[in-house]
Amino acid sequence: MLRPAVYTVVFFVLAPGTTAGLVPWLITGWDRPSGGVGVLDVVGVALVLAGAAVVVTCFVRFVREGRGTPAPVAPTETLVVGGLYRYLRNPMYVGVASAIAGQALLFRSLGVTVWLALFLFAVVSFVKGYEEPQLAEQFGASYQRYRREVPGWWPRRTPYQG
Fold first, then answer.
1. Does any domain span residue 16?
2. Is 155 inside any structural domain?
3. Residue 98 three-state SS
C-alpha cells in the first residue's frame, strides 16, 4: 500500500495541483480585488475548501479501497464505489472543478472562468473517450451496473449499495 500512496501523492501534485492550483495562479497571480469581503468571497472560499476536501478524500479512497492510484498509468485493482463514489461517479473531477470555480469567484477572474470551461470540456471528453471504456473493460459487469445506477456528474440522493 506504500507504493500506491506515494504514486498518489505525486499524481495529486501533478494533476489537481496543476489544474486547480498552478493554472489559476498563473492566470491571476492570486491577486484579489480590494474592497473587503463580500458574498462572492465567502462562496468562493467555500467552493475551494469543499472542492479540495472532496479531492483529498477521493485520493485516499483510491489508495485504501482501490489499492491503486487515480492515475491511468497505475490504476486501482478494484473498482472504487465507496465513500463519495456511492453518490457520484466522478466526485474527484467535480471537486477540482469546484475549487477552480471558487477561485474564479474569489479573484473575479474571467480567465479562470474560461479555464474552468476548458477543464470541464477536457474532463468530460476524457471520461467519455477513455475512462468509461477502460473501466468497462477492466471491471466488466460490476462497472456496467455501477454506471447504470450512479450518475456521472450530479449526485444521487441515496447511496449506491452495490
1. yes
2. no
3. helix
- C-alpha 135/C-alpha 66 separation (Å) is 13
Give the Cα separation of 8 and 5 in Å (integer): 5
Tell me, yes or no, whether 132 lies in a domain.
yes
DSSP 8-state code for residue 147: H
**Rounded to two decimals, what is the model's pTM?**
0.93
Range of the domain at 101: 2-149
Distance from the first to the final alpha carbon of the chain: 24
What's the domain count of the chain? 1
Q: Look at residue 62 and tell me if it is in a domain.
A: yes
Q: CB of 90 within 8 A of CB of 152?
A: yes
pLDDT in tens, 13-61: 999 999 999 999 999 999 998 888 899 999 999 999 999 999 999 999 9
